[in-house]
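Good morning N.,

You mentioned wanting to compare the apo and holo forms, so I went ahead and generated the holo version with 2-acetamido-2-deoxy-beta-D-glucopyranose. This is what I fed in:
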Amino acid sequence: MLLCALILSSVATVLATFPTQLVYQSPTGFFLENIGVRPSGKLLLTSVLSPTLHTLDPAKGNATLDEVYTFPNSTCLTGIAEYAPDVYALVASNLNITTRRAEPGSVAIWRLDFSAKHFTVTRIAMIPQSTLINGLSTVPGAPDLVLAADSAIGAAYEINMRTGAVRVAIQDTALAPHAPAPALGINGLRVRGNALYFTNSALQTFARVPLSMGPRGIHKAGAVQVLGTVQSPLPAGKAAFDDFALDCAGRAWVTMHPGALTLLFPLANGTWAQENAAGDPAGSYAVFTEPTLAAFGRAEGEEKMLYVVTGGGQVVRVDTAGVHL
Ligand SMILES: *[C@@H]1O[C@H](CO)[C@@H](O)[C@H](O)[C@H]1NC(C)=O
Ligand SMILES: *[C@@H]1O[C@H](CO)[C@@H](O)[C@H](O)[C@H]1NC(C)=O
Ligand SMILES: *[C@@H]1O[C@H](CO)[C@@H](O)[C@H](O)[C@H]1NC(C)=O
Ligand SMILES: *[C@@H]1O[C@H](CO)[C@@H](O)[C@H](O)[C@H]1NC(C)=O
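and this is what came out, ligand included:
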């Protein structure tokens, strides 16, 4: 839900690491997975190790993590996406953290509505064929739809949040894990324009695929194009892309395990380049312990503040204002 007044097809960047500020550190290292940024700027935070949704106000000094709601029959919350003003889709499941696969029949899509006076929670759909939904994305121009990344089978489901209908919209080897559990294929995903951008953790790629959207739903409309791959001094398999944010200029801010944020951006000739934006690709940076997702702030003056959550229980503010168009 970024307000993108200016969409540029190519940008030049001043390359440097951006200033970071630790907003919150969980005293118990509570694993944080995904962020829903509310219109007020408050963050809704999910954890793969808890069925409880939390909230944190990053504008407060000494911010605290406060409980919002605990989902039944679940141990794990992954993607969250705001598909109408202050209304969110959220994925809950019963996850085995060793195999990184959910109990079949436990994957549920919920609707959380904060827009009315009384907060309501409604289960919209079950996805019995899935053993892991990871990231969620809204679909600009299709307000009832969200896309959900299945990291196990390498697919993106289209979920109609009004009717509860679920169908596989895209399935492709570029989304697949290419190895047994606990490998993860497609992890984060975002629709922008007529394209789906996504990370594949096992393949170490950031990529996009053109989409067509019509009365029969969302379909793949061309070949997958890899825009970047993990660049790390660590041995293969020790570093991986997780989830990401897209900014108004079409750049991607991708979290990378074990401890960095990578900026991927298009050059004037259409090829993509990448740079380390924050943290350390070798994992030595103390406030980026297994970063899982980045999301832009929404409170006044916060549009260029990127909030990164980590598996080490951190919320880190990254000031991206130094990126010049
Ligand atoms: C945060 O907590 C510390 C220690 O309790 C206190 O000294 C400080 O004033 C607090 N800061 C804010 C902005 O509330
Ligand atoms: C939780 O799971 C149990 C057993 O599978 C089922 O009977 C119950 O209806 C479920 N509760 C909810 C809220 O889904
Ligand atoms: C997770 O899966 C592993 C491997 O199948 C199994 O040994 C373990 O008992 C499972 N853990 C739970 C909590 O079910
Ligand atoms: C695009 O531009 C970059 C930077 O000038 C250059 O390194 C790269 O080779 C160019 N790629 C193509 C396909 O022209």
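Residues 72-73 surround 2-acetamido-2-deoxy-beta-D-glucopyranose (ligand 2) (CB under 6 Å).

Happy to go through it together on a call whenever suits you.

Best,
F.
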